[in-house]
Amino acid sequence: MIIYKSMRKRIVAGNWKMNKTLKEGVDLANEINSKTEHLKDHSVKIILGTPFIHLAEVAKTVNPAYVKIAAQNCAAWSHGAYTGEVSAEMIRLAGAEYVILGHSERRKYFNEDGELLNTKVKLALENMLKPIFCCGEVLEERKENKHFEVVKTQLEEGVFNLPEEDFKEIVIAYEPVWAIGTGETATSEQAQEMHHFIRQEIAKKYGQSIADDTSILYGGSCKPSNAKELFSNEDVDGGLIGGASLNADDFLGIITAFQD
Prior knowledge:
Layout: E1 10-15, H1 22-37, E2 44-50, H2 55-61, E3 67-71, H3 88-93, E4 98-101, H4 104-109, H5 114-126, E5 130-135, H6 139-143, H7 147-158, H8 164-167, E6 171-174, H9 188-206, H10 208-213, E7 216-218, H11 224-231, E8 238-241, H12 248-255
Parallel strand pairs: 1-2, 1-8, 2-3, 3-4, 4-5, 5-6, 6-7
């Protein structure tokens, strides 16, 4: 049994990325909803990060008492002539409570930098969405021992200029980029080391109490076979799950890792 020394939330969030048709997504949400409703322990917050077009239908499918909905991104503008963009307000009104921001794929493929992400974080908060803010280093930065520096900079640029009350709404997700979709996974010790570092940096900025209450998720090839070991670390409060979130049984296996 995993023992927690604080009251911070335990979270398992799925990031479906650009997968599942609308019907497939609704079917998956239905299956996850059915399997998780029967859990004895509902202390783990379950979040489904769906494509934009799934949000409204999936929000109607799941029991909001057990399963929350997240968008995978939001626009850096509140409204206007920005073809193809989706605003934070639209996302909230579609039924989402969370939004994933700063994912390594957004940084890499869409050149999202700290300034842009900070704008998105503020718009999300203004529209009553809770950001899941991602940070993490690529393989070259890890090999050059720059991983702490990189993560610290991402936090400073993305969320550390927020007032205390706003920062309390933030969930942090550490994703070692070299361990995403590669089959590689940071060791349990590496995950704990970085999560502890992040908590220390939050404490320096906002105080130990806020640091102790901030949920920090691990996001790098987490699966049922390694979830229990990862989640047993004092500073790892759950996971941001990619591939394993596309299968209800695998996702459930990660959720129940907190209960074994």
